[in-house]
Every structure is written in structure tokens, then in C-alpha cells.
């Protein structure tokens, strides 16, 4: 019997004998230390005593913190509830139009979250279509600025994220568990409460976590809809504009605390029980327990209301993009699209496309390298590398952007104003998702396949490109699609990093909406969504069955 030697010296010896692996490990450590560890240390060390004193002495900052926690918690709760009900209706009911409802849930992912705020202004703002109709017909003044409007907008913006997270869990629940419970007398709500919901709880908690972090970091919607209801992300932006990086860093650090608390609470809750849904028992031929006729009607009504909100949001944006000034002059025109999308002097949509493609390719490539070395190669510091790789996903995008701008606007490495910093910010926020997915995929592939290639003379680089990549191609493509869509729509992470030369579409939508030129904001939004769809269409033609865009 051959006993494999283990230990730090053995790991280092193996790395030295495999130069390709050694280079990959060193590059991974260097990139994460430079763009994750260094900015975090810099932003934490930057504030002085005066900055901390100023934050805690001014009531407006405390109010902004409280508002952030309240609005984000409410929005995360309602978005998660809506996402769960929507997903439950798809997998557990007999309602008609399930494919249509799946498509509707996908639509908001195409649009930046700030477009929801724009559409809300066009519908329910003081000069919005619904507001004007209510005033003319019923003499009712509609004022939803502040918490009510922000609550609605963030719920609609992030409910698809909750839906996608929960639908995967509901889909994987074994029907035989519910059938067994039904045979023991559990029916209706009792069956749902004791079996279905408990098994789906990890997905529900994870959905709440993801939505809450996005709400904490949301900048565009609070700035457009919040009015006097100030949030920390907006205050951070104001302090960066006022050249107060120390005070902005204090607020960034404070903003991270609620996000980390959400992670701790999630871990505590999930550690208290077992939620296994794959038991190894045969389930083919078993039909899932479906809801009653009355419940089907209620679920259909709920889905229809959500659909109405989402379609109205897209419809009003399209109407403003293709009319001179909808509501005042409804004449059809292509001038807004031509000026905002196809004009070389307005390259926001093109910039978004170029930067997103580059960042997404790099994010997936780096995630592949990280997953490969962490899962397959023994080396000292593996746990630290793994932790650092997933750390950005736990940090609000606003904080990531803040850390990058304060760290690289001074010091030995100056990247402020460059496209590199925007690409890095996009990469950091999307890479952990691909890394986690690829890590799971690597663990499902037998290591002996790669060992056989190594025995035949292939080094790590050749094994990665000729063996590993083809086997994980579907996962890689799926993660690229996700990263590309998120990067095209991102605002909070890069709002501090853009320059007049490198302005992107999401920032343009926000700027035009804030100045009241809604038709230009709508044109950029339509151009952004059209570009995203066209790019995904090209990818579908290239990769065919490897890309499943609407499968949620």
C-alpha cells in the first residue's frame, strides 16, 4: 500500500516541480491581494479620528444608516416573499401560462435596477402618467417619494433575483417526501408549512441575503425616488463628490456591517437543521403534490399583478424612447435612439458592451483558474485564497467601488479615471459567483482524468485548456452569460469610477433621469437592453444548447 505524503513541505515541493501550477497560484494570490486585500486595508485605515467623530456627531448620518437598514430589510422581505410565491406558483400549481410567467421574471434582469426607478417616475412621479390621471379624474395627489416609493421600486427590481434563487431549490425538492407526508395525513397548508417550506428554507434565506445586500448597495433608485429619505449609499456618493474620502470611508465601513450581520444570521439559521432534498431514492414517475383550484386562482392573480407591474415598467420606457415627449407630444420618432445609441459622441451603450465583455471574460477566466488551483492543487494558504475569492460577494457594490477609488486615486498605483478600474470593479463583483459554481463542478469531475493527462506529459496549463475547459464548458458559458448581464446593468459598484470618457449606460440613465430628460434616459435604457439581447442572441447561435437564457 502506497501512503501519499502530506504537509506544507510536500505541497511546496509539488508546486515547485509543476511550474505552471506555481505560476497560477502566485498570480491568483497577487491579483486578490492587489485588488481585494489592499483596497480593504486602505479604506479601513484611511479615516482619521475626526472622520469618525463627524459621522457619529451629525444626526443626518445616523438617520441615513437607520433608513438604509429599514428600507433594505423591508424591500428584501417583500422581494423574497414575492419571489417565493412566484416560484411556488410555477412549480406547485396548475395555473396556465407558466412559460409566459417565467419569461416575465427574466425581463427585469435585462434592465439595470435604476431603470425601475426611471419607470416609476414616469408612472407615479409628480408628472407621471398614473399620477396625472388620478389628479385629473379624482383630484387625488399621489406622492410616493421617500420610503413608500423606494420600497415598491426595490421590491420590483430585486424580486427576480429572489425568484431565481428559490426556484432552483423548489425544483430540487423530491416529490416522494411530500407524497409520504400526504399519506400520513398532511394536507393543504399543513403540508406546505411542515414539508415544502422547511425544505425550501435554505433557498428563501439565501434569497433574502442576496436581495438585502443589493438593497444596501443600491444607489440609483434611492437617489431618484428617495427624496428627503436619505440612505448611506447616497451620502457616500455626496462625500466623494465633496472630496471627503475619509468620511466616505467611514460610511462605507458602517454600510458593510449590516451585510455581514445578514451572513451571520443566515449561517446560524441554516446550522440548526437538516434540509436535504436529494435522498437517493427513485422519484421518476412521481407527480408533485399540486395546489387546490382556489389556490391556483389566487396564485394566478398574484402572478398577473406582478406581470402587470413589470410590463408597465417596460412599456412606459419604450413609449418615452420612441416618442418626442410622451404625454405631451406622442409623435413617433427614432431621434432619441439615434442620438443616444448610435451617435459616436454618446458612446455609453458601446462602452458598456466593451467593458462588460472584457470584464466577463476575465471574471470567468480568473474564476476557472482559482477553482482549478483551490480544488486540485495542494499549497499553503489555500483557505485564505478561497476566503478572499468569495469575499467581494459579501460586500455591497457601493463599498467595493468606494474601496477601489480611494485606494487607486493615490499611492504607488494610480488607476483613477482609467477603464482598468471599471473592469476590475465589474470583475470583483461577478467573479465569486463563477468561482463558486466552477468549484462545485470541479468536485464532480474525477481527478483521475487530469492525472492521466499529467502522466502522458501534459503540464497544468495544457491540462486546464485541453481537458478541464471542454468538460466544464456549459458551466463556464452559463457563468459568462450571468456575469455579462450583471455587468451591463451595474451602477452602484462603478458609479464612483466612471469618467466622461468612460461613462456607461446605467450611469447615463441615472444622469438623464435626475435632470428630467426622461426620453434620453429611456432611449439609453432601450439601447442597453437591445444590445444585451443581441449579444445573448449571438452567443446562443454560437453555443446553442450550452446557453439556456430563459430557463429559470
UniProtKB/TrEMBL annotation:
<feature type="transmembrane region" description="Helical">
    <location>
        <begin position="144"/>
        <end position="170"/>
    </location>
</feature>
<feature type="domain" description="ABC transmembrane type-1">
    <location>
        <begin position="349"/>
        <end position="537"/>
    </location>
</feature>
<dbReference type="InterPro" id="IPR035906">
    <property type="entry name" value="MetI-like_sf"/>
</dbReference>
<feature type="transmembrane region" description="Helical">
    <location>
        <begin position="494"/>
        <end position="513"/>
    </location>
</feature>
<keyword id="KW-0997">Cell inner membrane</keyword>
<feature type="transmembrane region" description="Helical">
    <location>
        <begin position="21"/>
        <end position="45"/>
    </location>
</feature>
<feature type="transmembrane region" description="Helical">
    <location>
        <begin position="100"/>
        <end position="124"/>
    </location>
</feature>
<keyword id="KW-0813">Transport</keyword>
<feature type="transmembrane region" description="Helical">
    <location>
        <begin position="413"/>
        <end position="428"/>
    </location>
</feature>
<feature type="transmembrane region" description="Helical">
    <location>
        <begin position="353"/>
        <end position="375"/>
    </location>
</feature>
<comment type="similarity">
    <text>Belongs to the binding-protein-dependent transport system permease family.</text>
</comment>
<protein>
    <submittedName>
        <fullName>Iron ABC transporter permease</fullName>
    </submittedName>
</protein>
<feature type="transmembrane region" description="Helical">
    <location>
        <begin position="65"/>
        <end position="88"/>
    </location>
</feature>
<dbReference type="InterPro" id="IPR000515">
    <property type="entry name" value="MetI-like"/>
</dbReference>
<feature type="domain" description="ABC transmembrane type-1">
    <location>
        <begin position="65"/>
        <end position="266"/>
    </location>
</feature>
<feature type="transmembrane region" description="Helical">
    <location>
        <begin position="247"/>
        <end position="265"/>
    </location>
</feature>
<feature type="transmembrane region" description="Helical">
    <location>
        <begin position="297"/>
        <end position="322"/>
    </location>
</feature>
<dbReference type="Pfam" id="PF00528">
    <property type="entry name" value="BPD_transp_1"/>
</dbReference>
<feature type="transmembrane region" description="Helical">
    <location>
        <begin position="191"/>
        <end position="213"/>
    </location>
</feature>
<feature type="transmembrane region" description="Helical">
    <location>
        <begin position="387"/>
        <end position="407"/>
    </location>
</feature>
<feature type="transmembrane region" description="Helical">
    <location>
        <begin position="519"/>
        <end position="543"/>
    </location>
</feature>
<keyword id="KW-0472">Membrane</keyword>
<keyword id="KW-1003">Cell membrane</keyword>
<keyword id="KW-0812">Transmembrane</keyword>
<keyword id="KW-1133">Transmembrane helix</keyword>
